[in-house]
Amino acid sequence: MARVWRHLAVSVVCGFLVVVLSQCKGLKPTAGQACFIGNNKYQCTDPATALLCQNGKWVNMPCRGPKGCSGVGNMQSCDDDLAQAGEACMMSVGGDNIACGTDKLSELVCTAGVWKTTRSCKGPKHCSITGTIVHCDDTMADVGDACVAEPGDDNYACSVDKKIMTECDATSSKFIVSDNCRGQKGCWLEGNKVNCDLSAARIGDKCHLVDNHSCSEDATQEVKCSPQFTWIKQRDCKHGGCKVKNNSVYCD
Fold this sequence. Notes:
Blueprint: H1 2-26, E1 42-46, E2 49-54, E3 57-62, E4 69-70, E5 77-78, E6 82-83, E7 98-101, E8 106-111, E9 114-120, E10 127-130, E11 133-136, E12 156-158, E13 164-169, E14 174-180, E15 187-190, E16 193-196, E17 200-201, E18 213-216, E19 221-225, E20 231-236, E21 242-245, E22 248-251
Parallel strand pairs: 6-7, 17-18
Antiparallel strand pairs: 1-2, 2-3, 4-5, 7-8, 8-9, 10-11, 12-13, 13-14, 15-16, 18-19, 19-20, 21-22
């Protein structure tokens, strides 16, 4: 009888060890496993990555900021000041969680637990962070770049090649063509002001101000901005050609 009890005792001990081992394994979760510590809670897995509890499952959350992921227990910290669009992120309780792209040419916002590019930062100062404030220089932007339309303030920029003045379209939240800057100066910045040299224009190009006049690129015609916001022919300049002086057009 004693021998039977010994076998039972061993079985009980083995069962206990299985429970303990499974609990220890639970302390080191992996992506895709269920989590029960609540949304926005995370654990560092290496110096640059954390596992984030999101909608009941663990997901990988990169900590691409200079401080990476560090600390233990409740003192863990994930530096997400730098991020990449499409990666998992932690929703902020007291407002938007905003970051700079790793190339510092874009601003991102954590939307529904995923980083989303909200504006291009191709201006000279690019994207930078001071404390909790993100600064995005969007004075330079190409057609199709993401942007944020500021209420009551038209958002203009120069394309990177300085040939186009772009503007933020509030409907699409993308930069679109405002004017082609075909004059010698192209598009340039003066502080926060965007300038466009319209002393030369091409028929069919988009234009910004109706009845604005200019010269064709070969200086043989005077052109004007039509009600359809495209450059059209005004008249031929058969003798001395077309010239722009002091913002006035002369056609001979």
